[in-house]
Amino acid sequence: MTATLVKEASPPAPAHPGARGRRPRRRGRVIALLFVLPALLLLGALVVYPVLFSVGRSLFDASGTTFVGGENYAEMFRDPTTLKAVRNTAIWVVVAPTLLTGLGLILAVLVEKVRWATAFKLLLFMPMAVSFLAAGIIFRLAYDQDPDKGVLNAAAVTVHDAFKGTSSYPTARARDGEGLTEGADGSYVTGADVTPGGTAALGLVGVAPRDLPGDAEPARAAAARTAGPDEVRGVVYLDFTPGGGGEPGVVDRRESGLPGMKVEAVRDGRTVASTTTAADGSFRFTGLDGGPYALKLPSANFAPPYEGVSWLGPALVTPAIIGAYLWIWTGFAMVLIGAGLSTLPRDALEAARMDGANEWQIFRRITVPLLAPVLTVVFVTLVINVMKVFDLVYIIAPGPVQEDATVLATQMWLVSFGGGNDQGLGSALGVLLLLLVIPAMVFNVRRFRRSQR
């Protein structure tokens, strides 16, 4: 009987342990979902819905009322401008990430060996703080064809003129019927020959007094000199009197000589002597044989000045824009690769040095292989970025060469809103751009997950 009472008074059996644990887990999932829900709604509104809408819109015509199926996708590859955009995008994808990864690697390795490494990294990373709009304006000015505005062409003209010189008087010309005849190559030759003992006055116009060299002197005294029996003398002068007056073809008192002008003595079509005019425009040929000579002012005296490189012309506009992109993103690549470089096992590098390896062998056989995962991530990230480049191309490329520089992103905008007004074709271009970006994104995500494991 006692055993029966004890048995009846025993507590009830506990519930299944799994049921007690499921309830908190379910509550945790609900709470997590509530926290994630705003982000999911935002992602759906800003990413998923526009993607689905663009896919649907790409199947309709420009007005959006007639279903055309895949016609817009076929039109993309029939349009020469779109094909050029695809070609330029391919150039961007191949060239820009490769150069940036290589530059970032080289700079990251070199920065480790300088004293002010942090300041150098900061200096290279600063362009990342500049917006693409501001960077585009900066480089549009830097690439300007006018050397007085474009810094690159100013440097190019300075170097060119230092080695090859420049023409003395690009705007100068001879008066009609005043003794000088223009040749087919732009040179001027005297109509009447001169002989030793003779003189010649070669007058030119078209040079503004303010453009005369600072050392130019009046030509009247030089024109009055006589020549010896075996020499030819003359003067090249500006046949223009400031303030008016003077007589054409005559060296007047206030008319200036043209210094630095090259003059040649020509006989039977061959140059036998050459000289350069002095500050008063005078020149002299000595030791000439008897007989007539023609005096020639070569075309180099009148050649237009060197204007530099047409950076924004059809041939160089894409490399020029890529150069601006490199300026912005080199610091980014250097910092990421530098972070990977700081995690390399130093014992492997020291062991290689102890074994007699030089720095180039260490870089090629140890540093680069160990940095391969980081280099791959940087390269793929830049590939994704260059596929979406828009601002630099749109701002830097002038209107006449916009078509030569266009990429898929700019072509999509131009077709849809920049005058084309064909949002069906523009949506198809957007879908194509998305399809090109997705493989690189998937590769990056998978590699990141593998590195996390």
List keywords for this structure.
453 residues, 8 strands, 5-stranded antiparallel sheet, MetI-like fold, 3-stranded mixed sheet, Immunoglobulin-like, disordered N terminus, alpha+beta, 2 domains
Can you tell me about this structure?
The protein has 453 residues and is an alpha+beta fold. The protein has 2 domains: 71-154 and 311-452, MetI-like fold; 180-301, Immunoglobulin-like, CATH 2.60.40. It is built from 16 helices and 8 strands. The strands form 2 sheets. A 5-stranded antiparallel β-sheet has the order 1-2-8-5-6, with no helix packed on it. Strands 3-4-7 form a 3-stranded mixed β-sheet, with no helix packed on it. Helix 2 (17-57) runs antiparallel to helix 16 (423-452), helix 4 (80-111) packs parallel to helix 9 and helix 15 (408-416) runs antiparallel to helix 16. Residues 1-7 have low confidence and may be disordered.
